[in-house]
Amino acid sequence: MKLTLTINGKLRSIEIAPNVMLLDVLRAAGYKGVKKGCGEGSCGACAVLIDGRPRNSCLTFAAQCEGSEVLTVEGLGTPENPHPLQDAFVRHGATQCGYCNPGSLIAAKSLLDHTPAPTWEDVKEALDGNLCRCTGYVKRIEAVLDAASLGKK
Ligand code: FES
Ligand code: FES
Fold first, then answer.
1. How far apart (Å, rounded) are the C-alpha atoms in residues 23 and 58?
2. Which of 86, 118, 122, 129 is the most buried (most CB within 10 A)?
3. Please, what are the domains in the chain?
4. 141 φ, ψ to 5°?
5. Which residues of the chain have pLDDT under 50?
6. 2: alpha, beta or left? (left if phi > 0; alpha if psi -120 to 50)
7. Distance in angstroms (rounded) separating the CA atoms of residues 59 and 23
8. How far apart are the C-alpha atoms of 1 and 64, rounded to whole Å?
């Protein structure tokens, strides 16, 4: 079947099997920033925004996304022009191996879209589903609060 959706602002039409997950479709289409961790909804590494809402793409059938707008980490910023959240993650040491960062950044982006001036608890809760085995969980909270304090999202 043909799937038509907008990924990072670009209209894409992709041939898919009816039972394939969005995670696999995105990665096959070149969006390798979408990571596969657990593959069962527990780690958040595969998070993307679908119509502005954070979703674990490993649990989302691609066919359910017909006509949707999807944002992956590639749509946030580039190494030359990073998103304020990406910049803050680097400055605060909230990235080490980096595997969890795409999902964490997507969750943080969703938070700041809806809550531009979050509290520590707001950030902690928003990133609750994004596991990180490297940095601990303090630095990324500091990073999100820093990005929020700059008033950019
Ligand atoms: S890979 Fe989707 S939640 Fe872990
Ligand atoms: S930076 Fe390695 S898992 Fe989070």
1. 5
2. 86
3. 2-74 (3.10.20.30), 84-149 (1.10.150.120)
4. -65, -45
5. none
6. beta
7. 8
8. 12
What is residue 153's predicted lDDT score, i.e. its pLDDT?
53
Question: What stretches of 33-100 show up as alpha helix (H) in DSSP?
Answer: 84-91
Residue-level pLDDT at 151 = 75
| The two three-digit tokens of residue 110, written as one number | 């969703």
Ligand 2 center–CA 104 separation, angstroms: 10
Amino acid residing at 127: L
Neighbour order of strands in the sheet with 47-50: 10-15, 2-7, 69-71, 47-50, 53-56
State the helix-helix crossing angle for 101-114 and 84-91, rounded to 10 degrees.
120
Residues with CB under 6 A from ligand 2: 95-100, 132-135
Residues whose CB is less than 8 angstroms from the CB of residue 79 and which lie 6 or more positions away in sequence, other chains included? none
**What is the rounded CA–CA span in Å between residue 98 and residue 80?**
18
Give the distance (Å) from ligand 2 centre to CA of residue 149: 24
46 lines ligand 1 (CB under 6 A): yes
Q: How confident is the model over 56-95, as pLDDT tens digits?
A: 999 999 999 999 999 999 999 999 999 999 999 999 999 9
